[in-house]
Design brief:
Layout lengths: L2 H24 L7 H8 L26 H16 L5 H17 L8 H11 L4 H4 L7 H5 L1 H6 L5 H16 L2 H18 L4 H15 L11 H12 L4 H12 L5 H14 L4 H8 L6 H16 L6 H11 L3 H18 L1
Helix pairs in contact: 1-15, 1-16, 1-18, 3-4, 3-18, 4-9, 9-10, 9-11, 10-11, 10-14, 10-16, 11-12, 12-13, 12-14, 13-14, 14-15, 14-16, 15-16
Length: 342
């Protein structure tokens, strides 16, 4: 393997490890208000924690457990590695439904999100894949899209956006959701190519603008503009101040136009510290497992897997029985093969 290839492989692994590490850090804090998180864990989460016994979604999960963010990203990764592009939206829908049945049978409350649930119900009722996700505006597409960014070069932004749409439209076929997913995928792709966090954020804004006109229109703030605004607000801030700004101004809800800019806002506050970025994102409250997963994926792609503590990588891998190195290698083979044909 060439030096360039080894570096790309390290960054591809970094994207997947960053996703899982951010997700696991945010597992016990997800769906909680910022004040409750600060009271229980301090201003910034120091590391992995088990879920509180009274947690609304994750009660009983041990420290280092991932949530649906990582599970759905790996589900999509498996489909991409197995079948390549274009992603079959109906098959993706079937796999999402099968995944929810399996976790429901195990007693988990961390199930499909509202947009995905509605879309799957529509598919089961005979609605086409194109129409099933016509009202999906939440961040489910953005949280699972990292594998598309790893497997696709950013050299052709329109091709990247096309692939994002393929992976998202069955559940989130709206301009706002597609813009958010495109932003994350483009930033991850740029990172694998060697971009800094600042350059990856620029790629995210460009892709979000391209994707905003795809899918069904809904009334929502512009994702590209909000990423630019959020990163301007938080750049250079101390971590605690950045958390306050993200929580009170940018927003940390399931809404794509809040959570995706929030992830980039966190990254702008600490662009060279992926582990800190994940801990900050996991401390902001609201949908902070997803925010931390997205921030971790981008930061990991930009800095490589070694930017995360070996103990963190080992814990997430062992607790969840993950084989992220193998998945990253499979996605990178698709990216490399496409480049060799061009």
């Amino acid at each position: 393997m060439t030096t360039a290839g080894a570096e790309a492989g390290d960054r591809a692994r970094g994207a997947l490890y960053g996703l899982a590490i951010g997700d696991a850090l945010g597992m016990p804090t997800q769906s909680l208000p910022r004040a409750d998180i600060a009271a229980r864990y301090g201003p910034i989460l120091a590391g992995f924690e088990p879920a509180p016994a009274d947690h609304p979604l994750a009660a009983g999960l041990p420290a280092g457990s991932v949530t649906d963010d990582t599970a759905q990203a790996l589900l999509l990764a498996g489909l991409v590695v197995q079948s390549g592009f274009p992603v079959d939206p109906a098959e993706l829908g079937r796999r999402l439904l099968a995944w929810e049945k399996s976790v429901r049978a195990r007693g988990s409350l961390d199930l499909l999100g509202p947009s995905t649930t509605l879309a799957i119900d529509r598919l089961l009722a005979g609605v086409s894949a194109e129409e099933a996700g016509r009202s999906g505006t939440t961040n489910g597409a953005a949280m699972r899209v990292t594998p598309v960014g790893v497997a696709t070069s950013g050299a052709d932004p329109r091709l990247l956006v096309d692939r994002v749409v393929q992976s998202a439209r069955v559940t989130h076929n709206t301009g706002v959701a597609l813009a958010g997913a495109a932003a994350v995928a483009a930033a991850v792709s740029a990172g694998v190519d060697g971009a800094s966090v600042a350059d990856a954020t620029h790629a995210a804004v460009t892709a979000a603008r391209l994707a905003a006109g795809r899918g069904h229109w809904v009334a929502a703030a512009d994702v590209a503009a909000r990423i630019t605004w959020a990163t301007t607000l938080t750049a250079g801030l101390r971590p605690e101040h950045a958390i306050d700004v993200v929580y009170t101004l940018v927003g940390t809800s399931l809404a794509t136009q809040e959570s995706v800019p929030a992830a980039f806002g966190v990254l702008a506050a600490c662009p060279d510290e992926p582990w800190l970025a994940c801990r900050i994102a996991a401390s902001v409250g609201g949908d902070c497992d997803t925010i931390a997963a997205m921030a971790g994926a981008v930061a990991g792609a930009c800095h490589g897997v070694a930017a995360f503590p070996p103990t963190a990588r080992a814990l997430v891998t062992s607790v969840n029985e993950l084989d992220l190195d193998r998945v990253a290698a499979g996605l990178l083979r698709i990216r490399t093969a496409a480049g060799a044909r061009d």
